[in-house]
Structure formats: C-alpha cells, structure tokens
Specification:
By secondary structure, the protein is mostly helical. It has 8 helices and no strands. Helix 2 (25-36) crosses helix 7 (124-143), helix 4 runs antiparallel to helix 6 (106-121) and helix 6 runs parallel beside helix 8 (149-169). It is globular.
C-alpha cells in the first residue's frame, strides 16, 4: 500500500467520524471534549493545583507541567517539520489560526501523557478518570474536524512515549 492510499483511507475514516457540521448532543459533547484538552486549561489547572493543592497533588502538578512543556516542544518541532494542513472546516477557528498544522495532535499527545502520569503519580480514582477521558479527547479532535485520525494516533503514541520516559526519569 502506498502513502497516497494510506492518506486517502485516513481522510475517509476521519470524515466518517466527523460531527462538526451536525448540530445536536454528539456535536456539543465532542466540542466540550475537544476543548477540555487545551493546553491553557491544563496549565492553569495544574498551576492552581500546585499552588493550592496538598503535597501529593502539588508534586503531581509540577511534574506534569514540566512534562507537558517538554512534550509541547517535541510536538511543535514535528508539526513544523511535517506541515500537514488541518482538514477543511469552520469549527475551531482559534486552532486553525494559531496552529494551522495538524500532525501530530498536541491534544491527543497531552491527554495520553496525562493519563500515564496520573497512573504513575496520582490517586487511582483520578487515573481511571483520565484514562477514560484521554481517548475521548483524541477522538473529539477528529469529530470536530481539526485532525485526521492518523494525527491523533501518532499524537497518542508520542504522549505514551513521553509519559513512559517521564516516569522512568522522575521517580
């Protein structure tokens, strides 16, 4: 199978998952999930947790913030090297203007990274919640037309690799 065929299949399956142009509860839920992985949201939440949280939560927050920053740099470098345009669409104008490249998905990478870090360092109930949330964020990015399926698969793989590396480096 050649690259063109893979990209065509990727575009086809990504379009099948898309709900951005279909008003209703699925679109609303996908939109909320797509935004829930935003870097500013997690940076603010983790900074507040570091500042006001217990010792356990503060430690988790500061390590997670550092890992998110390192992962963001890696994702940005890959995006600038690959320069794959986002799928056409109207939803998510802020993403389309500030970051026109879709490969890999930073949201998927960040969500999986957070799931791995939660499994290693956070209470188990929180890890379960984040492990359920992470793939939903990744799929919502495709559903809202901001990414192709391969963008979120590779992003999730980067998040998994970054999470495992972080846990190994920071005990």
């Amino acid at each position: 199978m050649n690259l063109r065929a893979v990209l065509e299949a990727d575009a086809h399956w990504s379009q099948r998952l898309r709900v951005a142009e279909s008003p209703g509860p699925m679109r609303t839920m996908a939109g909320v999930l797509a935004h829930s992985g935003d870097s500013w949201f997690w940076a603010a939440g983790l900074a507040l947790t570091w500042w006001r949280g217990s010792q356990v939560w503060s430690g988790w927050a500061i390590r997670s913030l550092a890992a998110i920053a390192a992962l963001a740099a890696i994702v940005l470098i890959v995006k600038l090297l690959v320069r794959r345009r986002r799928p056409e669409g109207e939803w998510g104008a802020v993403y389309r203007v500030t970051d026109p490249h879709s490969f890999p998905s930073g949201h998927a990478a960040r969500a999986v990274l957070l799931a791995i870090l939660a499994a290693a360092w956070a209470p188990s109930w929180f890890a379960v919640v984040v492990f359920i949330w992470a793939p939903l964020v990744a799929l919502s990015r495709v559903a809202m037309g901001l990414h192709y399926l391969s963008d979120v698969v590779v992003g999730a793989g980067l998040g998994l690799l970054a999470g495992a590396t972080t846990v190994l480096l920071i005990h």
